[in-house]
Amino acid sequence: MLTPLLVYGIPLDFILFALTLLGVAIFHHHTLAVALTGLAAIIAYKLLFAGFAKFGAGLPGLAHHIEHEWVTLANLFLLLMGFALLSRHFEESRIPDEMPALLPDDWKGGLILLVIVFVLSGFLDNIAAALIGGTVARHVFRGRVHIGYLAAIVAASNAGGAGSVVGDTTTTMMWIDGISPLTVVEAYVAAIVAMLVFAVPASLQQHRFSPIVKDAPSGLRIDWARVAIVAVILLAALTANVTANLKFPALLDALPVLGLAVWAAILVTSVLRRPDWSVMPETLKGTVFLLALVTAASMMPVEKLPAASWQTALGLGFVSAVFDNIPLTALALKQGGYDWGFLAYAVGFGGSMVWFGSSAGVAVSNMYPEAKSVVRWITQGWPIMAAYVVGFFVMLALLGWHPDAPH
């Protein structure tokens, strides 16, 4: 029988995971190698000493664990890779070049762009909303986007999806589990307050760094075929999400429905315009990095969370910045006793505080590799952490903590 190793009472796998995260923070130019090395070390330890919790020991335990996680991993892979192609279609449609004519030419232009990302994320996947925001920012700020503003784009996408059951994977999980969408929508109280806190300083920061261009280039011709392709891909994702949740919820545990829908739309529309496959190698590196961290997080021996309370929910937001929020949400649903609006905000928005804390952050960092620095993300994106705390406590003061009974 395998016996887990403890160091001062802490399971060794937690220490290995913490060292992996520390390595990512320090060696931000080698994040993929660090993440894969950490995952390999955790798997080796599990095979030799600890086993895979409820899935058993040895290679059979590892196989059962991967079988349990493969749908989540496949969905993340397909969405991150697919939405990278979508962002290139959007960029080549020339709509981002038109944005300077539509946005104010001072700091309020950056603010309005963040609001657009927030609104888009309410009904699109937050990865797509963040990539659209990042694409527009690259054009309207002449390619010079402040890391604090990149963090704000990610935060806006995560805030916009926090109160929508189709805007974030974690809120979709709550919907599948029987939580009312009206309960989750309360998260927008905190999310809107958080937007007010971080969006203005981030926009001022960006304006000082590189002001918005004043005029759109002359002679622009919008490629409406690419605009249609973007719309079809996004509509396919939205339709698949809603239909599967309402009509075929069991299918979501068997197949990566969302990712397959996105790729079906990409392949069908490729007859109109060829996707820019050249973005795939770099996107693949960032995607494999995130999958390595998510897989490592899923192997941690977190069998239960502390007792449900608003303090626990607040803490889970900070944990979500470095620990995948999908298993955290699954544990919270199993435990019950949370006010789900608070939890949706915490695990949805909390991941914005570190670049690899959410899939939207990884997607934007694939587009802007200079953002892959934990220190720069935190120090230059400081308004996000303040916004998270302020939003949470304003929601607590206005709505109060009203936990649901375990369902």
TrEMBL record:
| Membrane topology, as annotated | Multi-pass membrane protein
List the Pfam families: CitMHS (PF03600)
Localization annotation: Membrane
Residues annotated as transmembrane: 5-26, 32-49, 70-90, 110-135, 147-167, 187-204, 224-244, 250-272, 284-302, 314-333, 340-362, 382-401
Q: What is its main location?
A: membrane
Q: Where is the Citrate transporter-like domain?
A: 29-332
Its keywords, alphabetically, are: Antiport, Ion transport, Membrane, Sodium, Sodium transport, Transmembrane, Transmembrane helix, Transport
Taxonomy, superkingdom: Bacteria
The family line of this record is: Belongs to the NhaD Na(+)/H(+) (TC 2.A.62) antiporter family.
- This protein is called Citrate transporter
